[in-house]
Queue: 4 jobs
Job 1
Amino acid sequence: MAANIGNLCILAGNANPELAKKIADNIGVNLLDAYVGKFNNGETQVMISESIRGKDVFIIQPTSQPVNDNLMELLVMTDACKRASAHSITAVVPYYAYARQDRKTRGREPISAKLVANLMQTAGVTRVVTVDLHAGQIQGFFDIPVDHLAAAPVIANYFRTQHLKDVVVVSPDLGGVTRARVLADHLHTPIAIIEKRRPKPGCAEVMNIIGEVKDKTVIVIDDIVDTAGSLCEGAKALRKLGAKTIYATCSHAILSDPAVQRINESPIEKLVITDTIPLPPEKYSPKFVTLTLSEALANVILRIQSHRSVSQLFR
């Protein structure tokens, strides 16, 4: 079934306009003519300059830094589309903010990931497309369809081109084993696991490594690299245990200070990231390799538009 391109519109926010443009180019449509900015008092302003009545609108807007500004932009853009009589509004949110606040770990804590889901639905989002949620159960916070995509196939394609030998895929913690297994299955390699504990938020201590890494080329995979503390400590532990070459990869490179400095000073050879979050020039490092998910996201949008299976793309 062919996609109805004539009814498809792509609206870009300010979070990642480069990714939005690449997606539109892959599909073969122009971005909607719209202004997304601020009033003089700092409030979000959205003006859509062409008719979207009866259209299927896809809003490209990761909720990366500045998180609350980008989230509010998404909500206001959604409301504008709903009031302009759009037929459907799909929020393409490659990076889903507040995903690490998916449960209560102590008293009087919010579940912010659920709050964000409620806000998006209340604003008028009818479908969500996202990439590598920190916690897969966040899909259940929505009462609308959620397409949860994995960056692993794109990352695996990159590593295949490097023709690496004696590869082991490493999970940086017990919770990331499933993610590591997916990449390992793509590359037909074994996995290893770093066992660590967090004495306090933002601080990790490596306790043990499960699996054989001596004289191996290791690929450490995580969904998010924020301050890079646990990633770099894990890399040091792998080097001490005899890992020959250490690569790292993640879907979402937040890179809060001092992440770039830590990575540059670590034994990590390359950090392979995706463009779910734009990489500003001040965070550039020669160790970084950025892969685009624009083609994969464009294919997902086309499949949604033509009512075809999305999961088949990732088999």
Job 2
Amino acid sequence: MADHSGHRARLRREFLTRPESFPDHKVLELLLFYVQPRKDTNPLAHELMEHFGSLQGVLDAPPEALEQVKGVGERSSALFLAIKELGRRYQAQRASVENIVSSTADAADLLRPYFYGARNEMVYLLCMDGKGKALACPKISEGNVNTAQVVSRHVVEKALTNNAVLAVLAHNHVSGLALPSAEDCATTLYLRDLLEKVGVKLLDHLVFVDDDMVSLRDSGYL
């Protein structure tokens, strides 16, 4: 059996020296070191990239799809899922709910981590006090790849439970553009009026797609 320890040591040193410019397939190769200690993981890294199209595709793939690739077992698929979950939690903790929301950009920074790596459409409500301090960001609903049902009663309940005075609604589009649909606009106006009746002002509705975001307020819909 070949001794890969020298190659692995060199790859680790290379990664530590220039992590930002490290090629995607080498990142996968490096990760696989830790679950396949006695194998050359370079061919499997290339196979994963080819099969799923990109590093994002690999990390977005469910475990059952990953394990259909020869050489990927439960330990490898669990590692990739853990990496993705760590990324989501890291972003969420960096965007601490202790922040004051004073602009669309502030709201987007707080809400974006909740959609990190999402495969389904989800709806969240950012709840704030009268000074714009973020109090909580509960999930309202989660749907399939095409839709998430916004339940009006849940929106009001979450706003009141978290003592919200101000709120920002947010959801993601899993595929396509971050442009709000006619249904998005109608739902926003309906929820704005509904929340106003219980003393909560809906400031905005943000629509996320990957690294893109559209604000209904800034776009003139709200």
Job 3
Amino acid sequence: MADATCNDERAHGLLQFYGASRTGRWAGRLVQVQNLPRNYLPDLTQARALVRGGDFDALEMLYPSVPDTLSQLIRTAFIPSENHRFIVADYSAIEARVLAWLASEQATLAAFTNGEDLYCATASAMFGVPVEKHRANSELRQKGKIAVLACGYNGSVGALKAMGALKMGLTESELQPIVDAWRAANPNIVAMWHDVDQTAIQAITTRSTVTLGNLSFTGTKGTLFITLPSGRRLAYVKPGLGVNRFGGTSITYWGQGISRKWQQLETYGGKLVENIVQAIARDLLAEAITRIEQAGHQVVMHIHDEVVIDEPQDSGTNVTDICTLMNQLPLWATGLPIDAAGYECEFYMKD
């Protein structure tokens, strides 16, 4: 952080435009703001004051783990300008909303439109009983939550484990039934994985443009383009077809692998859907940032689907004003039930 601070006492260059080549999202650079440790201390302000004041004896006495406390305080090093405050706002469950909108998954869209708890609504659809947070069948909400987080992009038991299902108290024998129940409750999303896969294969083999809902796939000799509802295009270089580990047809393209070496990569319908959904979420954020800045506010940082605004103390602008700007839908996203929420703070933190 000290090395990234310039003469104006601000850090610059923390976000690289189009740093994520598959989706076009920004990528964190220097101080990795997109991967900061979360804070959950109830007395974050007090802990921060002890560290700033150098009272480490008190810090060690009051907090059982000093390293964990210091880790939670990393994001609080970001502060607004003098006589300013931060307004932080983000989109709620944006990927789940975009996915349901793309697939026309009406039950999920209705849950968002009616302001229902997504995890309760999902668990209710999965298990066929009413599920209410802290009330009727509330123990099923956890299963609905992990299913939403893990299964949306053709994830199965492995994805549930990667999301921490076993650490959450679920047993191995429960995982496959959860996957099956989620897929049965979301047939349009399941169908979309297959449709995207087949449409991409058709575009590659015919070197033509094939339309799928509000998406279009164009295959050329050198690139597979996926045109998003916004008009922006995703590009997959040197597309081809191969055989996956299950003996079926796979989609291949060339790009940077884990070791950042240029190599042939493999993808499939669920992964392409993930790229498309995250790219659309990125476009929504980009347009929201533009609206916010055109309204005279300074966006100093944005993290995934969240914006951080450096706002004068006496401007009269509040969280509701910023969320109203974020919730304005572009014409290409008609019917998408987005919902932004936020808070004010004297230093950067998670509410």
Job 4
Amino acid sequence: MREVRIKAGNMPEIAVAEDGRLVEYLRDDQANHDAETIYLGKVERIVPGMDAAFVNIGQKKNGFLPLKEKSQTFRHEGLQCGDRVLVQVKREAHEQKGAFLSRDVTLCGQYVILMPCDRYIGVSAKIDGEKREILKQLGSALAGDRFGLVMRTSAAEASETLLAEETEMLWEKWQNITKKAATAPAPSVIHEEVSLLDAVLRDYAPRGIDVIVTNDERIRHRLDGTYPVVWTEDDPMDKDHLLQQRDQALGRLVPLPCGGNLVIDECEAMTVIDVNSARATGAKMAEENIRKVNIQACEEAARQMRLRNLGGIVIIDLIDMQPESRPMVEEALKQACLKDRVKVVVHGFTSLGLMELTRKRQRRTLRDEWTETCTHCQGSGRKQIKEEKHD
């Protein structure tokens, strides 16, 4: 059972719970949520050695724009200092770093992702078999060499008519964006992504939303009739200890049902998840117990990535196991990641036996949303031992 809970306030809070377990806890602080926003920027500086440009988009720090995009089918022209350029924020500004920008704009719908500057036709990796080929051919027909198109997982259950209608709606949106950019000053905001709540509902609607619980009358009236909405005068986050689950996710240690635990450390370059057996393994059937702990660890790690909104590189240090157990554990992780509405790619085991995966970086992490750096330890969580004075 999937519940979406919405708490009223200046910055509404949104919780997603599956069978009573919290999987997302978000705060709709639109001022600090810049991902996917489209700007008309001005190129301030080009650094050939970095193969990148720094673009003024009206923020404190200039955005970082690679001159070459990852896609081989992206179409673009060269840039010079002073040029006006349409860019999209792919990673928000963070501390000393400006926003990470791209000219390969994407417009996301419920069923498809339209790429107006690209010509790539793709299908979600979660769709396979004959359905995948059918959707790829349909995507090619709908795009007609006008733009690129990716069929999302939800497209598998949608009709051709519905896919065609959404594709044309997104194409019309892009045409309106280019018209606005033609006369807008640089820098300026050209297009903002839908609200956080709308994005959550858009992504979960095809997967099924059993109930929406809210104490916000405006939300109740807007969504009633479209979703099963329950209104409450109380705090909708009180049920199922959702706030307690959120606060637990701000710590390092996560217990596992089998008796083991995870230790999660968010580092600058990546997130590292260490799996400890604790009291979970014994002398008998050691390999079977280790495999059981590792499978539970993968399932919980997938949930924690969603809940903590971890992005970028994630490394999981699993308990050492026999080579024949690895495929089963890797498959358990892939299946658990299918529940994530954010793109996750499981790259498999490294030569050192570490599980490597990447998760698309979006908004700020749960830790950044709900905590601040300690002024005494500067975020290390440790203090220096004072030297004893000797006479």
